[in-house]
Amino acid sequence: MVSRVIPVDVFDLVVFGGTGDLARRKIIPALYRRFRAGQMIEGSRVIGSARSDFDTESYRAFVAEAIDEFIADHASETVAAFLKSVHFVKLDATGKEGWADLAKLMRKDVVQAFYFSVAPSLFGALAERLESHKIATADSRIVVEKPFGRDLASAKELNATLEAHFDEHQIYRIDHYLGKETVQNLMAVRFGNVLFEPLWNALFVDHVQITVAETVGVGGRGAYYDRSGAMRDMVQNHLMQLLCLIAMEPPARFEPDAVRDEKLKVIRALDPVRHDQIVRGQYKADGEQQGYLEDVEHPDSLTESFIALKVHVSNWRWKGTPFYLRTGKRLKARMSEIVVAFKPTPHSIFDEEAGSKTNVLTIRLQPNEGINLRVTIKEPGPGGMRLVDVPLDMTFADALGPVAREIPDAYERLIMDVIRGNQTLFMRGDEVEAAWAWTDPIIESWTSRGSRPHPYDPGTTGPEDSLMLLHRDGRRWREIEDYGTD
Ligand code: NAP
Question: Which domains occur in the chain, in start order?
């Protein structure tokens, strides 16, 4: 199969925070790959910007180093060609200098995008100056990163700040999980096949599990993380988005507002979560590594590095089917997956010795993206009728050959969508606010009770109580296991 690359229109992309960690690790490598693939064509420009003392020449050296560090196989001629499109403007988001230079450099007759890869406290200053210096046009796009607020009030404030200068159709709120190939494939599998949709409801789905497990601790982000915790850092955004894609009704068309309207309905249908349906944890120290409390240098911290919740979507389709969500740090393996566990057949025609199996659809986001459906067949051989379940594996790298060997990073897809002006995979303002409106009372319920997260051993699946969350319902989590690398 040959991959089709459709070049995007010529653009000027300004990366505010162009010297930061996100720019170096994700944005620059993503742009380079799209250039190499022929999607970013000649004439397009990447304009890094920050307060640091770079000029275009030294910034090109910085970009070349980032490519060197994060892209294993790069040809020097391609890098040299890419660097010609790279520029730098030194400016302070909160100051006066540099803005006239940026205004002079920008072209009005190409697609303009501004990536706010800076702290959210600078969003207002950037938006205001882009307007007052007449740099942005009615068609310019701005891209903002998580965290989008830390509660409903701050998210509303952030939305109001951006909306004072830009229309909603110009604002691209990134949740990089939505840029993952498998997440988009989830929509293709659900809505491009007749097989799944008739079964996709509480009559046939026993339960859904969504797991995002990390092996790393909070590392150097201790102080930031401790003000946030797993609920704010992961559940309110990434896990919520995955839940929406699983639970939403089919939109009439695959168009931005049609998709986002359906996701919003799911968020609004979420029941409040009782405190006995939540398990929070903090990783302990082990031989070599510090525990959470030492990592964040806050011995009394009540912030969770692990959370598991049982969530209900109260609508006709899902009434009675629980969604179990869990995410945590310093766990046994790094993996993200969604499991849709179907109910048993209504009646078994086989005798008890045959055993009984149920169908399970697993959508793996990382590592080694792919979709796997377990189906029941007869165990081969003359020994009578015994049932086994076997995987119908749709690991993309195997099924699609060279095209899928290098699955594009989520940022590649998302940045190209910004240039194309397609907001389908970005969160709308009302979606983000609805997600906080559901999250706030949950956080408030444990804050007001002063409840302490359960300590858990690193390298495990989290606190014991999270196993109980499912055991009480006669179910069990899928193993957190290593699927190899991506
Ligand atoms: P970072 O490494 O601290 O970089 C911040 C960037 O902002 C630097 O380029 C800095 O350059 C620039 N900057 C700071 N103050 C400025 C000012 N007053 N005017 C102009 N530029 C200024 O941060 P980051 O990790 O790249 O994160 C950027 C944003 O992405 C944040 O909102 C973060 O929450 C979000 N995010 C990051 C990641 C990640 O993996 N890193 C993941 C998800 C979301 P100068 O100091 O030279 O000005």
Answer: 11-145 (3.40.50.720), 178-471 (3.30.360.10)
